[in-house]
Structures are given as structure tokens and as C-alpha cells.
Amino acid sequence: MNETPTRTDEDAIRTALATVEDPEIHKPVTELGMVADVVLDDDGQVTVTLLLTVAGCPMRDKLTRDATAAVSAVPGVRACGSSSAS
Fold first, then answer.
1. Among 2, 39, 57, 82, which one has the highest count of C-beta atoms within 10 angstroms of its own C-beta?
2. Distance CA 45, CA 1 (A)
3. Is 49 domain-assigned?
4. What's the 3-state SS for 66-86?
5. Quick one: pLDDT at residue 4?
6. Is 47 exposed, middle or buried (0-12, 13-18, 19+ CB in 10 A)?
7. What is the CATH number of the domain that holds 75?
8. What is the pTM of this model?
9. Quick one: 28 exposed, middle or buried, by C-beta within 10 A (0-12, 13-18, 19+)?
């Protein structure tokens, strides 16, 4: 029996985030413990909070763009917002 998931789950989001590497350390943000929070709502809106390695991280924009692109590619995600904190 083929079942089509009706809702994206957090595991799929975290799997997508595992493809996002910190550009300076060259390891996935998930492995580095940089994913502080993943919030999914029933409408397919996902919000990801990334922890930065240092305040004023020069790679903030790149990490945000890469995380947003990775999560947005997950089936069922309608919108993604990423925020970062240090």
C-alpha cells in the first residue's frame, strides 16, 4: 500500500539541514549542534533557528540562505524562514 505523507515531519527537515555545511568549519550544521529549533505548522510553514559560532558571524547570510534553500526543497514545505542567534 502506498501512503502519501500529508505533512512534512521534523526528521525530513533535519535531514535536509544535514546537507548544510558551516562554510568555515566544513561540517554539517546538524553535526555542529547549530540547529537550535525547528518549528513546523500544519500549513507547511517551517521556521529554523540556527546558532552561530560567534556573534557577528560573517557567514550568517550564507548559512541562512543555504538552510532556507535546503528546507524549502523538502516535499510539503510551503514556506521557510530561518533565523540565527549567537
1. 82
2. 28
3. yes
4. HHHHHHHCCCCCCEEEEEEEC
5. 42
6. middle
7. 3.30.300.130
8. 0.84
9. middle
Pairing of strands 45-51, 79-85: parallel
The pLDDT assigned to 6 comes to 43
In a domain, 2, yes or no: no
Instruction: Provide the mean pLDDT of the chain.
Output: 87
Is residue 23 included in any domain, yes or no? yes
DSSP, collapsed to helix, strand or coil, labels residue 37 as: strand
Torsion over CA: 22, 34, 62, 13 (sign): positive
For residues 79 and 73, give the distance between their C-alpha atoms in angstroms, rounded to a whole number: 10
d(CA 69, CA 86): 21
Q: What would the grid cell of residue 73 be?
A: 526543497
29 within 8 A of 71, measured Cβ to Cβ: no
Distance CA 67, CA 20 (A): 6
